[in-house]
Design goal:
single chain, 0% strand, 2 domains, mainly alpha
């Protein structure tokens, strides 16, 4: 296992622990020290598991420490800002790179990664594909949320200025299973990921075309 492979494994562990395992409620409650510690322990355990270097206990220790520091600073600033989110991701990746290229034991224990010893280079491919899928489906939700946030606030302010009771949240047309829009968005992005991966990007056009009549119906009903 070389340094690049270690970076791939650490990044996959980070994506899984931060965007797949961690719930929205936990992400919004990390000002509670217990929840923050639990999340950092999860990130450290996944880094230890996915790298497969059982001898290098320093990896989960450093991941726990750096993850705790970064999340603590992010909480103190403002976790709900796009630029904070981007800087946080950049710093995590930088830490993985620095960690991978400063652990000299990696060169001497190249065969000790259980995953690469078992399935070879396929492990890197699986890690990259899994990371890409999670980023497309889950991180995409966060980016979309940051993008539409100003418009949501504008709509709420407009409703308040008109003396409305904010039917946005109580209208019968909004009744449905919780966070349905989020789940539908994840499914759409998952399909796009599969289309691109299978060299069928033209199928994305059919997905958009199939969705458009539904949007026309929503606009016509006055729900939006």
């Amino acid at each position: 296992m070389n340094q690049i492979q270690l970076v791939i494994s650490l990044f996959a562990a980070y994506v899984i622990s931060d965007f797949l395992i961690q719930t929205d409620k936990e992400a919004q409650s990390k000002e509670q020290f217990g929840i923050l510690i639990r999340h950092c322990v999860t990130a450290a355990l996944f880094s230890y598991l996915l790298t497969g270097f059982w001898e290098l206990w320093i990896i989960p220790v450093l991941i726990f420490t750096t993850h705790l520091c970064l999340d603590f600073v992010k909480i103190k600033f403002s976790p709900a800002k796009l630029w904070i989110f981007i800087v946080d991701q950049f710093l995590h990746i930088e830490i993985f790179i620095v960690l991978a290229f400063t652990i000299n034991d990696i060169k001497d224990q190249a065969v000790s990664s259980i995953w690469h010893h078992a399935i070879g280079g396929y492990y890197d491919i699986i890690s990259i594909l899994l990371s890409g899928f999670i980023i497309t489906t889950h991180v995409g939700n966060l980016i979309v949320g940051f993008g539409v946030e100003p418009f949501v606030k504008e709509q709420i302010d407009e409703e308040i200025s008109r003396g409305s009771t904010l039917k946005l949240h109580t209208s019968p047309t909004r009744i449905g299973f919780e966070k349905s829009g989020k789940i539908i968005g994840q499914l759409e992005r998952a399909m796009i990921f599969i289309f691109v991966l299978s060299s069928q990007p033209s199928a994305i056009g059919f997905l958009i075309a199939a969705k458009s009549p539904l949007r026309f119906g929503e606009i016509g009903s006055g729900a939006n």
